[in-house]
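Annotators were shown the component list below and the corresponding predicted structure, then asked to write short factual statements about the assembly.
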Amino acid sequence: MIEQLQTYFQYPFVKYAFIVGTLIALCSSLLGVTLVLKRYSFIGDGLSHVAFGAMAIGSVLHLTSNNLITMPVTIGAAILLLMGNESRKIKGDAAIALISVSSLALGYMLMNIFSSSANVSGDVCTTLFGSTSILTIQIKEVWFTIALSAVVILVFIIFYNRIFGVTFDENFAKATGIKTQFYNLLIAIIIAIIIVLGMNLVGSLLISALVIFPALSAMRVIHNFKGVVILSTCLSVFCAISGLLISILASTPVGATIVAMDMLMFFVCCAVGALKK
Amino acid sequence: MAYIKCKNLAVGYEGKPVAEDINMKIEKGNYVCIVGENGAGKSTLMKTLLNLVKPISGEILYEEDYNAYDVGYLPQQTQAQMDFPASVWEIVLSGNLARLKHRPFYGPEEKSRTKKNLKKMDMWDKRQESFRNLSGGQKQRVLLARALCASEKMLVLDEPVSGLDPIVTADFYKLIYKLNQEGLTILMVSHDLKEGLEHATHVLHMGQDKIFFGTKEDYVKSEESRYFV
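Structure shown to annotators:
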């Protein structure tokens, strides 16, 4: 088995997959706690469908890099969803559901009408489930992921205390003069970036799992914020790496394998949490 | 010399006033109770004074060395906070957030203030514990410690004793009174008139059509209080 892995690691694309996978898993778990507690667990799903729709537009227009269009559109949708929640008529889960299904439908329709490839459902399946796209990743995209991950991690560390304050009690923070709208905007932008990046790894349908599972698992066993954040990143990276290894050795789909690992980890954490009590 | 002065203030949401013609003055060291029926605009007024809601008309003036954000706030607890994984220490420390200005992390000054207020609230021994595992009274004292980290001048409380049992409630009011005696200005929205008013110096009564503001002595004699007290 080890020999088999050694052979695989001689290929650069396998190395790339592991670098990108680790980074995306790390970033996606950072904001999980915040999103779960702000009752935005499904934002990953919603935004990734938006990204899917944008990607369809991108491939219809034959753009050189899909990120050119998916990134701004997804960030826009994230801002729309996370900001000004108080005064809007359609809020929270309903808004997410609305945006999510609309972009999914539009994206699929566009891909069908304007598709240049013969295998439309294959293409759609790839974008939705990620299948092997992480194994076909280019060096350019690896650098792109490294750069954006560095930005996300840095921003999270610098604003860690503020993100905690805004998540735990937005009104308190606002009353003491913290610009909560700005931090909500920041959280929206970061989550959009993470989702666009994560689509490469597990595809747009499974990205929610990457955002939510590590946080929920960590919350079973640890009861302070810093500990939960640290444990959830560790769990996420562990699941991504082990999922990738299994998928290579057993030739299973990458995205689904990683999510299955996250699921398994969640049950383990539930059991540990129950035992601790 | 008043910290906060309201002149013909109207408060409400989306341009629709809930309460109008509010005239009041909160001076240093006052213990002001906001009482009134449900829907009379008590919470809306409080949120307006906290700059969470914009006033519809009228003025809020801040005087002396007091500014609009120099306030500690004890909100009603939300469902999300009930299952928030945070230790007592992390929560009380977050009361110092506005003091960070442009620094990213807390320094020794914030940490020692957190320690002082945790000890004052008798929660220092519980600092490692998870907030969600505490009792109702302990949670309130943690949030009180957080509010004290945010301001040493003004404390705003939104129905702080709802859901607490009578003994804990009495202790809590004693604690607030002690803080007031030490010089902290108190503004409290309360349902519970008998005990809530005991230590108050001033009362703002918000009725459906009439608003009373004055000292507690005047209030007890006034017509507005008859129905309540």
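Statements collected:
1. The mean pLDDT of chain A is 84.
2. The two ends of chain A are 39 Å apart (CA to CA).
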